[in-house]
Amino acid sequence: MGESAVTAVKRVFVKVSGFSDEERHALGAQFRLSESRPTAYSLWLKDEEDAAGVVLVDGDSWEAALELANPANDRLLLVWVGQQAPARASLAVARPLHWGAVMERLDALLASRAKDSAVLPELDLDLDFDAYSRTDPSPLALQQADSEPAAVLVVDADDSARLYLRAKLASAGLLRVDEAGSGAQALQLLDSRCYKLVILDLDLPDTDSWKLIKQVKAARPAVDFLLLTGSHVSWLDGMRGWLAGARACQRKPLHPGKLKQLLGNLR
To answer: How many Cβ atoms are within 10 Å of 141's Cβ, its own excluded?
Structure first.
């Protein structure tokens, strides 16, 4: 019975930034109390082998700006304490602090995220994927080997992002690549050519990318979408992408090993 209870516990490591000694002491007490609950919280340290899942930031501290600018925190759940919470904060808490209530709200948020991931079995939101060691060509490239090469359209306003993706596509054997720097340009290319894959930035400045997806899927149902974004990928983005027929919704820049796996899954 005791062993079963231990294995059922989910441990979440929390990176803590700022806060007074008294606040940290009270938070540590809440972490210790969580050991008897289904979700246990532990302070994340730099030499910790396990990755942090949550970053808890004191918005009134000088460290707050540094934590927001740290790209390593982009993939963590942000809990903000204080005023002027940033848009990407998943949970905002005002002072005076009641750590017990904060932990309960964090429990509910994590449970909601877990429930969302359970209904998206085909959607890949693994943002920290280790590189693959396979060197064989992707099935997409092989599939087109005896005929015209598979065409790919990269839609992104950032020149460097398009260059990065073109290089990764070339390494996967996909050399027939067109580029569009805007939604309008993308629609022109889609009207004149059939594409197997469209790599689309969700943050296009000239158009609503979700409307663009709907237009293209209606006209070209054979297109497989790989959705990219330069900002935080929310579960809402994931759900919308999945419903739109997306193969993945990933954070930029896409890991080369992850890109190779996604290309290999295209049929």
So the answer is: 19
Q: Which two tokens stand for residue 254?
A: 């896409």
pLDDT tens, 231-257? 666 667 777 777 777 778 887 767 767
The per-residue pLDDT for 23 is 94
Tell me the HSE value of 75 on the side-chain side, using a 13 A CA sphere: 12
Distance CA 127, CA 132 (A): 14
Structure tokens at 216: 């293209």
DSSP string, 208-260: -HHHHHHHHHHH-TTPEEEEEESS---HHHHHHHHHTTEEEEEESSPPHHHHH
248 and 123 Cβ atoms separated by less than 8 Å: yes
Does residue 49 have a pLDDT over 80? no
**pTM for the full model?**
0.49
